[in-house]
Specification:
The chain folds into four domains: about 100 residues, no CATH class; about 70 residues, 2-Layer Sandwich (GMP Synthetase, Chain A, domain 3); about 60 residues, no CATH class; about 80 residues, no CATH class. Helices cover about 35% and strands about 15% of the residues. It contains eleven helices and twelve strands. It is extended, with a radius of gyration of 41 Å.
Length: about 425
């Protein structure tokens, strides 16, 4: 959902509001809540809810009490109370929906210590706010250089200034505990502001910075995902994915959040399947489950004595064998059921290419080794040289025949010998 200011610029390039998610219409942020009560008037005698929701940089939201009864609407820039001084943010929600959001975030709206919204931001406040925002990249680069000089095992990922410019919050990631007391002293001396260090996780860092995932789309955490759920390797096992850390890890270095998207569907489908530890007792021997295919509803079993040969069984056939095993009855062999499955597969209709489209892999030719290429080249060279020799021989033979014919013709055309004088 884009705002009107995020239109197309020159040469078809996106213009963008260039406010990093804090545009005036508040329509291009992932945490935007649609106020479906905005067109409804309050009943008689009811007062509007006196709390508002304000968003700051990088989707950070907080709730403030509108003690001055200001007429605020979504998109207004307000000056809010901070620990020291004031901060500048944008109103994202007003009215009764704020109460719903506060209940969801477990914030008590009856708390008297809830921070207040002072006033609507003046032009002077907005200019100071924009000036501080423009300094953030330069200060982040300088802070990283100071951390490298002090040889601290940490990474400063983002900087957020307070609206009045008196304080800056540095977000960093680190694997171990870091003693950054000297870093704070050096940065306070270099920048002339109060410093606050806040450690975040690698997922939060990826959320703040954004990027493009392996699927070709923007990261879910930086576009629409609002909370982080724990992801474990069991999610990949249930979905029968290869446990390759390079493929399962995202840009944050942790397991991808999308592993949880279809996990519930797989778990519901696996309820109708026998467990992976299922053992089948047959006259031929004990059989173990090797693989499960959820989409085709089939399982692969192999005998303990011959683990290399797998036999395909359907889920219903496995349940039937298990019922017999519970009654202490053994099946003759797995081959009987496997043969039935093969017959069913052969009887299925084979769809032909009626549209006339070629295969997608028609251009994928296997790579040939250099040795085979050299051999083919040598064969071609030998063949061409042999052909040239034969041509030369034929030419020479032709020349010889022509010369012989010429000699014979010359002999035939010679004048007859004159008669001797004495004759």
């Amino acid at each position: 959902m884009g705002c009107s200011s995020c239109s197309t610029g020159k040469d078809g390039q996106p213009l963008g509001c260039k406010n990093n998610g804090t545009c005036g219409t508040d329509g291009c942020n992932k945490l935007t809540v649609f106020d479906w009560l905005s067109n409804m008037s309050l009943p008689n005698g009811e007062k509007a809810f006196d709390c508002i929701e304000v968003r700051f940089k990088n989707s950070r939201k907080e709730f403030f009490r509108n003690s001055e009864n200001l007429s605020l609407s979504i998109g207004d820039i307000v000056a809010t109370q901070a620990t020291s001084g004031h901060d500048i943010g944008m109103v994202t929600l007003t009215g009764e929906l704020v109460k719903v959001q506060m209940k969801r975030k477990k914030v008590d709206y009856n708390d008297e210590e809830l921070p207040k919204a002072y006033r609507k931001a003046s032009q002077k406040d907005i200019d100071m706010w924009q000036k501080c925002r423009d300094r953030e990249e330069e200060i982040k680069k300088r802070a990283r250089e100071i951390a490298i000089i002090l040889k601290l095992q940490m990474k400063i990922s983002d900087v957020e200034f307070q609206g009045d410019g008196s304080k800056a919050t540095f977000y960093y990631t680190a694997e171990e505990r870091v003693d950054f007391r000297q870093l704070i002293k050096d940065m306070a001396k270099a920048f002339g502001i109060r410093i606050e260090m806040r450690q975040i996780g690698y997922r939060q860092e990826a959320q703040r910075l954004g990027g493009i995932g392996s699927c070709g789309r923007e990261l879910c955490c930086s576009t629409w995902l609002t909370d982080f759920r724990s992801v474990s390797t069991s999610a990949a096992r249930y979905q029968q994915l290869s446990l390759n850390p390079q493929k399962l890890a995202g840009q944050c270095g942790k397991l991808k959040c999308c592993l949880n998207y279809e996990l519930d569907v797989y778990l519901d489908a696996l309820k109708d399947f026998p467990s992976q530890d299922t053992k089948l007792f047959t006259d031929k021997g004990l059989a173990f489950c090797q693989k499960t295919d959820i989409f085709k509803a089939t399982l692969w079993f192999s005998y303990k004595e011959d683990p290399a040969n797998w036999h395909v069984l359907s889920a219903e056939q496995v349940k039937e064998i298990l019922e017999k095993n519970k009654k202490k009855e053994k099946v003759a062999s797995l081959e009987e059921y496997a043969v039935e499955n093969l017959v069913e597969i052969e009887e299925r209709v084979v769809f032909e290419n009626v549209v006339g489209q070629d295969s997608l892999t028609r251009f994928d030719q296997p790579k040939r080794s250099k040795n085979s290429r050299n051999r083919n080249r040598n064969k071609k060279r030998k063949g061409s040289s042999g052909g040239n020799q034969n041509q030369n021989q034929n030419k020479n033979q032709g020349k010889g025949n022509n010369q012989g014919n010429k000699q014979q013709n010359n002999k035939n055309t010679k004048r007859p010998n004159r008669k001797p004088k004495n004759a």
